[in-house]
Amino acid sequence: MKVSSTTIIINAFALLFLILAFIKDKRKSKEALKVALKSFLNILPKTIMIIFAIGYLLTFIPPSAIAKFVGEQAGFGGTIAISLLGAVLFIPSVISFPLAGSFLQNGASVTSVAAFITTLTMIGFVTLPLEIKILGKKFAALRNGFSYIVALLISFLMGVILR
Amino acid sequence: MKKDNILKEYLILAVITAVTIGVFSFYPQKSTLFEKNFLNYLVQMLQIFPAVMVLSGLLKVFVSKDIVGKYLGKTSGFRGLIIAVLLGTLPEGPLYIAFPLVKELREKGAKISNLIVFLSAWACIKIPQELVEFKFLGLKFMALRLSLTIIFVIIMGLIAEKIYERPERHKA
């Protein structure tokens, strides 16, 4: 099995921090490992579901179909559509990246993929009522409204720079 | 209640697995392709997921909301904006647990721009999350999106503050 350098870097990074944490506070670090195991088991079923979705996507949907909706030639409309989808969906962000990666692998444009991830993480449609209740309508509207504009700007710039 | 939800998810997963086995008995010619893609992503995910969870566990235990609040409440100027970004990236947990903290800081007179920058950074910049992005979308994509996000979130915080603090004539 091939292990990429990316994988090694990520694991080394985590290991380094774990060692530092153990030097600093053994008891807290053990607690952190327990928390990690728990969140791993919590997110595992969702992760595998996403991987099923990716498997189906890459098996049954031809790149040309994805390209047509959110590819280079789809243009502005495709990006707007996928950014709105990102804003309303509620997928834990750590598992949204493999999904986004499979979009990119299968014909979606950089702009669309960036728009999807950025609106997904930045805008909390599901938590919006709570944000309004606690922080007020004005604050929540400003933050989420600007976030959407900013997400689109970021995505278009990404598309231009990474072309 | 939460345990039940997890149980339900595992149950749904079992159903999906069964359905998938069914689907590919109808499309045997596609099953190798599906298996290849499925296993490829599963292996890639499992190679980094334990590391990502350990990092997020460490952040959850070591970075408390109180520490973050203490620093965020006092900052101002350009340095304050940068600190707001950094403070937003550190704590783990869903965005909504930051709302009460932001409310409290706003009442204590923290700058609106810093609070908006902080919340936005909390929402979309997280160290474990960046690592997963690095893995699945590449270093260039991750680094560029991260840099653009930081720049735009700061600009957005400044503009939103101006609008937020503008007196509302028609309401008064």
Structure description:
The complex is a heterodimer of chains A (163) and B (172). Chain A has 163 residues and is mainly alpha-helical. Helix content of chain A is 83%, strand content 0%. Chain A folds into two domains: 1-44, no CATH class; 61-161, no CATH class. In chain A, α1 runs antiparallel to α2 and α2 runs parallel beside α5. The radius of gyration of chain A is 19 Å and the shape is globular. Chain A starts with a helix and ends with a helix. With 172 residues, chain B is an all-alpha fold. Chain B folds into two domains: 2-48; 63-165, no CATH class. Helix content of chain B is 82%, strand content 0%. Chain B contains eight helices and no strands. The radius of gyration of chain B is 22 Å and the shape is elongated. The model of chain B has no long low-confidence stretch (mean pLDDT 90). The chains are: A mainly alpha (163), B mainly alpha (172).
Secondary-structure map:
The complex is a heterodimer of chains A (163) and B (172).
Chain A: H1 5-24, H2 26-60, H3 63-70, H4 75-88, H5 93-105, H6 110-122, H7 128-135, H8 137-161
Chain B: H1 2-26, H2 28-62, H3 65-72, H4 77-89, H5 99-107, H6 112-124, H7 127-137, H8 139-165
Helix pairs in contact in B: 2-7, 4-6, 6-8, 7-8
Name the beta content range of chain B. under 5%
| Helical content class of chain A | over 70%
Provide the residue-averaged pLDDT of chain B: 90
State the helix count of chain B.
Answer: 8
The total number of structural domains of chain B is 2
Distance between the termini of chain A: 32 Å
- What general form of chain A does the structure show? globular
Query: How many strand segments of chain A?
Result: 0
Biggest interface goes to: A-B, 79 and 72 residues
Largest sheet of chain B: none
**Between the first and last Cα atoms of chain B, what is the distance in angstroms?**
46 Å
Q: SS-based structural class of chain B? A: mainly alpha
Shape of chain B: elongated
The portion of residues forming beta strands of chain A comes to under 5%
As residue ranges, the low-confidence spans of chain A are none
